[in-house]
Write a structure and sequence with these properties.
single chain, alpha/beta, Carbamate kinase, 9-stranded mixed sheet, two-stranded antiparallel sheet, globular
Length: about 240
């Protein structure tokens, strides 16, 4: 174990992050590497909860735009997050980690039903907890789920894993002059319309003073570096310095 800045974190993963360079589904190599980095971070004594999206399999918002009923599309999307959670659980257990998948929708044959106090107890015992099926309600994103679950379990930070090394004032893939922010305030994110998390999630974090760290998951050891307090990515909090 080493010195760490955070004792308990919530790691937010998009479903797309699991695809790697593929157009759909899960890249086993990406999944294995991610599981190894999470496992290494656990060795520091950090308690880790994870919220994973389902966009690599099904995106409710985009399907509703094509004419599907929004609530029905969102429920299908929640089931996609369960599939990703089970795949991540298997990868983590291959690393020798005790892991629990907790679902907001009851499916007792494959996952525990989400109970806040039980989730906290799992974390205290050193188990990695993966929250699946969103909040169990349509019209809420997995960003909002991450904010809600982080607050419920007393996480000290949301660490949002992306494919870029922080938050920029423009898309760095299409704007070579895009400027990266080291720190931002919640209101900066909302007023500028920056794509950190959706506005509901940002507002929830702002109201409860929960910081958000946006970082590049493709850079090796970034999770471990972030929990040690190194300057990684962009930190969103009450007042940017």
């Amino acid at each position: 174990m080493g010195e760490t800045r955070y004792r308990r974190i919530l790691l937010k993963l998009s479903g797309e992050a699991l695809m790697g360079e593929a157009a759909y589904g899960i890249d086993p190599k990406v999944l294995s590497r991610l599981a190894e980095e999470v496992s290494d971070t656990c060795d520091l004594g950090v308690e880790i909860a994870i919220v994973v999206g389902g966009g690599n399999i099904f995106r409710g918002i985009s399907q509703s735009a094509e004419g599907m009923d929004r609530a029905q599309a969102d429920y299908i999307g929640m089931l996609a997050t369960v599939m990703n959670a089970l795949a991540l659980q298997e990868a983590l257990e291959r690393q020798g980690r005790f892991t629990r998948v907790m679902s907001a929708i009851d499916m007792q044959s494959i996952a525990e039903s989400y109970i806040r106090r039980r989730a906290i107890r799992h974390l205290e015992k050193g188990r990695i907890v993966i929250f699946a099926a969103g909040t169990g309600n349509p019209y809420f994103t997995t960003d909002t789920t991450a904010a809600l679950r982080a607050l419920e379990i007393g996480a000290e930070v949301i660490m949002k894993a992306t494919k870029v090394d922080g938050v920029y004032d423009a898309d760095p893939k299409t704007h070579s002059d895009a400027v990266k922010f080291d720190e931002l305030g919640y209101m900066d994110v909302l007023n500028r319309g920056l794509k950190v998390m959706d506005s509901t999630a940002i507002s929830l974090c702002m109201d409860n003073d929960l910081p958000i760290l946006v970082f590049n998951m493709e850079t090796p050891d970034n999770i471990e570096r972030a929990v040690r307090g190194e300057a990684v990515g962009t930190l969103v909090r009450g007042e940017a310095s």
